[in-house]
Amino acid sequence: MTASEQDKAARLAKVVTARAFISPTDDCGGNPVTIFHLSAPTSSDDLAKLAQKCPWESIMIDNIDSSEDKIGEIPLPIFHSYMPSGEEVSFCGHAAIGACSYLASKKSIVKGGINLQPFSSSATSTVSFLTAGDWIRYDALVTRNEVQLMMHQQHTEAECNNKSFTIVDFLSELGLDKSDVLSENANDWPLFLNSSVARPKTLIPISSIQRLHAATPPRNAEKFRDMCDSIESTGVYLYSPVPTTEIGTATTKKKVDIEFECRQFPRWSGYSEDPATGIAAGALAASLHKRQHSRCGSGESCHICYQGTAMGRPSKIQVAISDYASSSSVCPTLKVTYTGLVVFDTVSV
């Protein structure tokens, strides 16, 4: 931002930059987000202009008291999620994780000025918020710099076959070919389908982590956008299972794939690759859950998605999924819990 743009942002909001889903062993990773805590009612045009000044996703927190944003008598903050283009989207996982961490820590942040690690308390706090537009309430548990975001989300799948572009076309655009697709137990893996718990992501299993990291960002960004549009996708999520881990009781132990290395190439976001994508990890976990992967007897599935490794920005996304009591077999509603670590980089209050 220019100096004048920073002045305007300061008048409209407190500004914090953070990274969500950082690796516990290397905090140079994670997905960045700019958090604007709005100090007054702000027009949608001004929100879009603020978002366009950010090189990555941003989230605007509006907790101005009004009759529309109350659950009972308690006013809840409202989250507006934006892409760098200025487009408002219904939800952004890593942005919400970062914003929840900020809300749980904001008193320490304000008191500490530029203190970027205000996680002195080990107590767990609950953060609740509404998403703009649909007014759905979500809850998160925040302990130090760890956030558990709990959601009830509908899961849908759609095949991508018989479209203008084939899986070979997509692989070629990403520097791979059909031989790089995971073929062992092929029917167990969601392959070239759109999976969604928020926005559709196209899942493609890759034969090895080495081949996964050999993929390259789209060679032609505009062509890739058109390819994604042709299959109604918001991005391609490549994934490769990490060597298996034993789970279960002493008598029922079995080996299942619960950890994956992943890469996300968005349709058209102003950048060619994403270091951590919560809704893509959620979509993968939901499709694996549907295929009975990683269920530990309780009906819950637990998956870990590592992302950003090839970018030098290692990230870790934990996703737990269980069936929701009122789910429909046609369009099931799942309980999805995202867990991630957050670090603050800059604070302007």
Question: Could you walk me through the main structural features you see in this protein, from its secondary elements to its overall organization?
Answer:
The protein has 349 residues and is an alpha+beta fold. The protein folds into 2 domains: 3-149 and 344-348, Diaminopimelate Epimerase, Chain A, domain 1 (Roll); 156-331, Diaminopimelate Epimerase, Chain A, domain 1. It is 21% helix and 36% strand. The chain has helices at residues 3-12, 44-52, 93-112, 167-173, 209-212, 221-230, 278-290, and strands at 13-22, 31-38, 58-62, 70-71, 74-75, 78-82, 88-89, 124-131, 137-143, 146-154, 156-159, 193-196, 201-205, 235-241, 245-247, 254-256, 259-266, 301-307, 315-323, 333-348. It has an 8-stranded mixed beta barrel, surrounded by 4 helices. It is globular, with a radius of gyration of 20 Å. The two termini are 16 Å apart.
Secondary-structure map with pairings?
Blueprint: H1 3-12, E1 13-22, E2 31-38, H2 44-52, E3 58-62, E4 70-71, E5 74-75, E6 78-82, E7 88-89, H3 93-112, E8 124-131, E9 137-143, E10 146-154, E11 156-159, H4 167-173, E12 193-196, E13 201-205, H5 209-212, H6 221-230, E14 235-241, E15 245-247, E16 254-256, E17 259-266, H7 278-290, E18 301-307, E19 315-323, E20 333-348
